[in-house]
Amino acid sequence: MHIHLDLVGGIAGDMFLAAVVHAWPETEAPILEAMRVAGLPEDWSAEASPAVSAGITGMRFQIKGDAGHHHHATGSFKDIRARLLASSLAPEVVARAVAIFHLLAEAEAEIHGKSIDEVHFHEIADWDSVADIVGAATAIEHLGAANWSVGEIPMGGGSVRTAHGDLPVPAPATALLLRGLRMTDDGISGERVTPTGAAILAHLKVSQDRRRPAGTLARTGHGIGTRKLEGRANMVRLLAFETEEVTPKASWGRVDEIGVISFEVDDQTAEDLAVGLDVLRGIDGALDVVQYPVSGKKGRMAVSVRVLCRVEAIEAVIEACFLETSTIGLRYRIEQRRVLEREDIVVAGGAMGAKRVTRPDGRRTTKVDMEALARQASGQGERSRVRRLAEGGDDGER
Fold it and tell me: Are residues 159 and 85 in the same domain?
């Protein structure tokens, strides 16, 4: 199963829970039970109820209580972790909840220059935040989704009041948790992503690939927030897809995805194109660049170029193709590939680096690095002799 989140209004812990409960009503009972087991006081209420935002129906999850009451939860990460580990929650739920808190603690520690165990969560110290995280851990474990993705993340604007005074939105710890994810300014201010919401996204290791796995849309959920936004629903939309598992027919090799970019050039000199292709080879995420002659339109000889790259590098490689070559159009796609697991070793007494792979029949083969080989031997005959000696045995070391 693949689950995609659209942060129409933003995301907070309660909005995430509400979206899950709206899509899977059967999760409400175990989520509420986990909150109580984790220590949510009896005089605090927790419930999911129907709600509407900008004409869109969904669910709202609310946890209410007196934060000034003696049941007020400690904000110490060390104490929260100890309490969760000592609880009777399912071990897998405890592990997820502690992992989410650990992400928050790491961000706070980095911001304030403290150790993780010294971190005190001022803004998420009450039981509602603790319950949100325990509830999220329960929901995630219940769903067992293979992977998660998220759309553009709203940046928000203005400031938020904290124990350290007014801070810009997104708050510093929230911003750290969102590193590596695309954000957008949709013109609506306020805190659009809470620290808890950001920690949940970080724990889920959400992707933002524009191409999501194909599958059958099985469930949808709308998690409604409490704030009213101008011109849009304040909600998290959840889309759950049943995906077909791709199972390799053999147990050998690793299956992953790769970007393939191709185009033709018939109006660029060979020497200039060679320079441009060298630039493409140096881009982070580019795996291989090849060229071969083809017959183009009007009988002109042309060069066909194919670039292999990691999926996350497709946009950067496409931009470089347009900058470094004269092409004005190209094709790209994402394909599956299978590669043999390889390990980097040294051969010939440590003189040369090499790669060693295990073939499907169990044979191990070695390929020495050509640049290292060229430094060790001159002339084709001598290189062949040294290569045979280096690749003939299995004397490699990591």
Answer: yes
Neighbouring residues of 29: CB distance < 8 A, sequence distance ≥ 6 = none
pLDDT score at 66: 65
Query: CA 380, 381, 384, 386 torsion: positive or negative?
Result: negative
Q: How many structural domains is the chain composed of?
A: 3
* DSSP H or E stretch at residue 82: helix 77-86
- Alpha carbon distance, N-terminus to C-terminus of the chain: 38
For 21-57, the pLDDT digits (tens) are 999 999 999 999 999 998 888 878 888 999 999 999 9
pLDDT confidence of residue 70: 44
Which among 339, 354, 373 is the end of a domain? Answer: 339
Let me know if 266 is exposed, middle or buried by CB neighbors in 10 A (0-12, 13-18, 19+). Answer: middle
Distance of CA 75 to the CA centre of its chain: 28
Per-residue CA distances from 231 to 59, 192, 274, 369, 383 (Å): 19, 15, 52, 60, 70
Domain membership flag for residue 325:
yes
Structure tokens at 133: 């995280």
Structural domain of 334 = 254-339
Put simply, whether the predicted model's pTM sits higher than 0.90 gets the answer: no
Environment class of 314 (CB within 10 Å of its CB; exposed 0-12, middle 13-18, buried 19+)? buried
Residues 33 and 117 in one domain: yes
Per-position b or e across 15-47, b if 16+ CB within 10 A of its CB: bbbbbbbbbbeebbebbbebbeebbbeeebebe
Total residue count of the chain as it appears in this document: 398
Range 10-26 average pLDDT: 96
On whether residue 398 sits in a domain, the answer given is: no
Is residue 249 a part of any domain in this protein? no
Q: Which residues on neighbouring strands pair with residue 353, listed in sequence order?
A: 346
pLDDT at 88 over 50: yes
Q: Which of 9-23, 326-340, 362-376 has the highest mean pLDDT?
A: 9-23
Domain boundary among 243, 264, 279: 243
